[in-house]
Amino acid sequence: MNSLGSLERAIMEVLWDSTHPLLVREVQGALNANAGKPLAYTTVQTVAERLVRKGLLSRTAERKAFRYSARRSRDEHVTAVMLAALEESHDRAPVLSCFAQSVDLDDALRLLEELARRTGEQPHVPGPGWIPPPSS
User: Fold this and answer.
1) In this model, does residue 38 exceed pLDDT 90?
2) Percent of the chain whose pLDDT exceeds 90
3) Are residues 123 and 112 in contact, defined by beta-carbon separation less than 8 angstroms?
4) Phi–psi pair at 107, nearest 5 degrees
5) Which label site among 9, 63, 115, 125 has the fewest CB atoms less than 10 Å from its CB?
6) What is the C-alpha to C-alpha distance for residues 24 and 11, in angstroms, rounded to an integer?
């Protein structure tokens, strides 16, 4: 799931940015708008079908064509990729620790807030101008 090819990612981006399901021709047009070498209709259709088989897109029939849409939002997809990566570790504690130390401070604070909300505790969110203590 987390190993999408460049064209698969590009198609997903077009569909995530769209407010409604798109025909292959519409996806092709969006992709070709900024492409040096235009993509063929059949190429876009083949990759869209591959994404349907991977469970990332859904399709609905419209006359002799299909409209495609993402099965989940960009945020939901990124979350699933992160969770899948975490599941690959036999010992999650070091991975989570490294992650917590690697994210920038604003993201760490958002994560703390969400974890506090999940556990029902009051989040301790520092106010403006807060400076983290020096590392020991």
Assistant:
1) yes
2) 64
3) yes
4) -65, -40
5) 63
6) 10
